[in-house]
Amino acid sequence: MSETSARLLRLLSLLQIHRDWSGAELAERLGVSARTVRRDVDRLRELGYPVNAGPGTGGGYRLGAGAELPPLLLDDDEAVAVAVGLRTAAGQGIEGIGETSVRALAKLEQVLPDRLRRRVSALNAVTVPMLRDGPPSGAVDPALLTELAHLCRDGERLRFEYRSHEGATGRRTVEPHRLVCTERRWYLVAWDVDRADWRTFRVDRITPKPPHGPRFPPREPPAEDLAAYVSRGVSTRAYATHSVVRLLVPLHEAAERISPSAGTLEADGADACILRSGAASLELMVVHVMMLGLPFQVLEPAELTEAVRTVRDRLDAALTRSTALIPRQCQLP
Q: Please, which residues have CB within 8 angstroms of residue 261's CB and are 6 or more apart in sequence?
């Protein structure tokens, strides 16, 4: 690579930090004159990179958004990661992304060096995707995700129509904070202006109603770990009945069976863990815990213990009646 090309790559790397650079700062970093910096900026613009320049002595250079996508600079690991990500993107709950990912992957593989193409091809050859038939549950329009992401980034109020789990619709005005993706669903964490509290919304139930705005000052988020916050919300807080159960298996074993949307887990020693979850009723809670197939101990509420006893008695009675119908010669001694 020529010295000029190498310098252009270094200049582009500095501009991608998304801050304003004065010509003198760039010249010092690159070890060239301010005139050379201006010439290199012009070359980047010719290549399709929209480099904005502020007027006057206090102005600076910044990489802006352009009408066309310029060439991307990726190292080997980044290129492989992008290719693998495109390969598996069809199952990530973004509506219509599968076909787009295939087209993007085809373009990327055309320009990959042979050594990287072999790495990607080897992985694709031995990988079998296990996806549900039809569109994934809770699929989201990519344009909606982009719109919400911009509002979160720019700190602009969002007005939208929201469809609840029961199918009822209502208008909301929120200050969007972050998008959280869990399994195949996307959630928006936002401050609900009318309710003066934090709320979590399923993105596939949101229909924006522009115009958006005005801008708002950032708030302290409801939790440092927003992934855990959303997990608690969708698995516990959203339900009328809550429970705390000790699972008599190590945390890692329980985590293999329990998704973040089904409950939150925390270690309780080396051989047990605590599961917090919710359900529409105590009876459904019993079924939920039983279907885990793990030994457990009910901690709270006390009513859940009684519900377990009730289910046990019903099962005992059903077994007794079923056994009575078996011919005597078929019964075990």
A: 182, 183, 185, 231, 234, 235
Residue pLDDT, tens place only, 112-137:
777 777 777 666 655 555 444 444 55
For residues 162 and 172, is the Cβ–Cβ distance under 8 A?
A: yes
Give yes or no for residue 267 having a pLDDT over 90: yes
DSSP 248: S
Return the bridge partners of 267, or none: 273
**pLDDT category, 56, cuts 50, 70, 90?**
low
DSSP E strands: which ranges in the chain?
51-53, 61-63, 158-163, 169-182, 185-192, 197-202, 206-208, 241-247, 264-267, 273-279, 296-300
Q: Are 250 and 270 in contact (CB under 8 A)?
A: yes
CA–CA distances in Å: residue 110 to residues 104, 114, 329:
10, 10, 72
